[in-house]
Design a protein that fits this description.
Blueprint (H helix, E strand, L loop, with lengths): L5 H4 L2 E4 L15 H6 L1 H6 L4 E4 L27 H13 L3 E6 L9 H6 L13 E2 L2 E2 L5 E2 L13 E4 L4 E4 L14 H17 L3 E4 L24 H4 L3 H13 L7 E5 L5 H8 L9 E3 L8 E2 L1 E5 L4 H15 L6 E2 L9 H4 L6 H13 L4 E5 L20 H11 L4 H11 L36 H5 L5 H14 L1 H5 L1 E5 L6 E8 L2 E8 L6 E3 L10 E5 L10 E3 L5 E6 L1
Helix pairs in contact: 12-16, 13-14
Bound molecules: alpha-D-glucopyranose (GLC) and calcium ion.
Length: 560
């Protein structure tokens, strides 16, 4: 098979460690807990685990603010436990990927603490320190007009230094200066440290932001959010730095890299992921398919548009076809739960199965986020103050300027990243089986109905459906390597696509509606010639080369 690679055939399970499983009874998920669940993970027919950051961190952004890149947060374990986990995972044929967060560190990282001492410190140039300017009225102004993605302006004034530092995210996440060759050497050292230990690759956090325009110019016209983006997103030097990391480190290991790239198009992604000598990353995490019910950020909501979602998926499928490999996902720690967004809580299992097949049968490496496989749903807390996440708090603050309190709460309930960060629902017992102690964060009250234990026992559960789909995918070259073709892109209720490979075809039919609607096969297809391989209802009659749908109906036909 052309371009066959292990990373193209794998599926990845994504763990957000704080909420996965608490092994030592302090209410916080940890590596001891993951060790207990390795067989469960393996049973899903995935081939790898990606850990959201496990490193020491003051948790201003729950691990994405790192204070030591070469250790494990004591909440999660020790380096020894991590090594044990790595060994146990490898024994089971599971690869392990770490989150590499090098656009910024924590302000509590020793580098930043040192850099604060000023230009005489060898660490001063590890970050962006600038004096700003004082206006005629004596008021201090930041060096430029960029805004952060998490907390107001992108510059924080530091009393001790009498200077500003740049932070594209939270105040406690100062941006590292990647133009400094010493910083790039540090990144390489970090990469080697984990790869030498046996780690199999990295998910690279906001990696397309690592280069900032020389001179850090103002951005005009001034946008209400993410102002400055064009001066720090996808700059040519970001590509060059990734090439350097590849040449000096990654090429010397059999490892995998997936970059995260907010607001990126397939055209831009192809610069990094096109297979061949200029490739610098194996895959890129896209965002456009997650914007079918919002505008640029989850917090700016609009009604779900199936046409928009399909366009995003097809755009990436078509444009990467034959050139590069997709990363496929519907959930991660940065988004609300998918059934609560694109599916239907009322038709929980049916819509969950439909959504699973919809994305897992596309061309690319699927990522499944903890709890997604049992259809965990959004968390609806009674007050905005009860949410933990820094981005949620920021969103609520901004929304409060224009919306009444009740609307802000509804918005947060629908969009907060905290919905993906509630403790994993293992059982219907105390604390959902996540911990013997009071969990660090709210358990979703629906754990009595939605949990792993209940779904293990039910052959028709969403959990078992995920298992069957992931197994099928791995066994079928058609699903792994087949070409993608979408039917009726303008249809507002159905997503219909086909995969073809060496004369075989797979037809995937997804209804995104609770209504009974008629689905008719395209002229060139005779449904009676196909074998139904997946569906989310019993009794799947075909009448006149089509059928009338049940809520969120899914049918997958194989033509061999
Ligand atoms: C990425 C992470 C997100 C984090 C942000 C800043 O988008 O996925 O969780 O808050 O980067 O590191
Ligand atoms: Ca613990």
């Amino acid at each position: 098979m052309e371009g066959r690679q292990w990373y193209k055939e794998m599926a990845v399970y994504h763990i957000w460690p704080r909420s996965f499983c608490d092994g030592n009874g302090d209410g916080i998920g940890d590596l001891w807990g993951v060790l207990q669940k390795l067989d469960y993970i393996k049973s899903l027919h995935v081939d790898a685990i990606w850990f959201s950051p496990l490193y020491p961190s003051p948790n201003a952004d729950f691990g994405y603010d790192i204070s030591d890149y070469m250790d494990i947060h004591p909440d999660y374990g020790t380096l020894e436990v991590f090594q044990q986990l790595l060994e146990e995972a490898h024994k089971r044929g599971l690869r392990v990927f770490m989150d590499l967060v090098v656009n910024h560190s924590s302000d509590e990282h020793p580098w930043f603490q040192e850099s604060r001492k000023g230009p005489e410190s060898p660490y001063y140039d590890y970050y962006y320190w600038r004096p700003g300017h004082v206006g005629l009225t004596g008021r201090r102004h930041p060096p430029n007009n960029w805004t952060s993605l998490f907390e107001g302006g992108a510059w924080e004034y530091d009393e001790q230094r009498d200077e500003y530092y740049l932070h594209l995210f939270a105040r406690k996440q100062p941006d590292l200066n990647m133009d400094n060759p010493k910083v790039r050497e540090e990144v390489k050292r970090i990469m080697r440290f984990w790869l030498d230990m046996g780690v199999d690759g990295f998910r690279e956090d906001v990696i397309t932001f690592i280069s900032k325009a020389p001179g850090l110019p103002n951005a005009y016209p001034k946008l209400p959010a993410a102002n400055g983006l064009r001066h720090y997103s996808n700059r040519p030097a970001a590509y060059e730095y990734l090439k350097e990391f590849k040449r000096d480190v990654l090429d010397h290991y059999d490892c995998f890299t997936v970059g995260e790239s907010p607001m990126t198009t397939p055209e831009i992604a192809l610069r990094y992921v096109t297979e061949g000598p200029d490739q610098v990353l194996d895959e890129m995490i896209a965002f456009s398919h997650m914007e079918a019910d919002c505008f640029l950020t989850d917090m700016v909501q609009r009604p779900f548009s199936l046409v928009k979602m399909k366009k995003a998926f097809s755009d990436w499928q078509n444009k990467l076809q034959g050139k590069a490999w997709n990363a496929l996902y519907l959930e991660n720690h940065d988004h609300a739960r998918i059934i609560s967004r694109y599916g239907s809580e009322e038709h929980h299992t049916e819509s969950g199965k439909m959504l699973a097949a919809m994305y897992l049968l596309q061309r690319g490496t699927p990522f499944v986020y903890q709890g997604q496989e049992i259809g965990m749903l959004n968390l609806r807390l009674p007050s905005v103050d009860l949410y933990e996440d820094v981005m949620t708090k920021n969103g609520a603050r901004i929304a409060s300027r224009i919306l009444p309190k009740s609307r802000v709460l509804k918005l947060i309930q629908q969009t907060s990243r905290d919905s993906a960060r509630t403790p994993m629902q293992w059982t219907d017992g105390e604390n959902a089986g996540f911990s013997t102690a009071k969990p660090w964060f709210f358990v979703n009250e629906n754990y009595r109905q939605i949990n792993v234990q209940a779904q293990e026992a039910d052959p028709d559960s969403l959990l078992n459906f995920y298992r069957k789909l992931l197994k099928f995918r791995k066994e079928q070259p058609l699903v792994l390597y087949g070409t993608y073709r979408e039917y009726r892109p303008k249809d507002k209720h159905f997503y219909t696509y086909e995969r073809s490979y060496e004369g075989k075809k797979l037809l995937v039919i997804c209804s995104f509606s609770a209504e009974a609607l008629r689905w008719d096969a395209p002229e060139e297809i005779d449904l009676n010639q196909g074998t139904l391989v997946f569906s989310n209802y019993d009794m799947n009659f075909v009448i006149a080369n089509g059928f009338t749908t049940r809520p969120y109906e899914l049918r997958v036909y194989l033509f061999a």
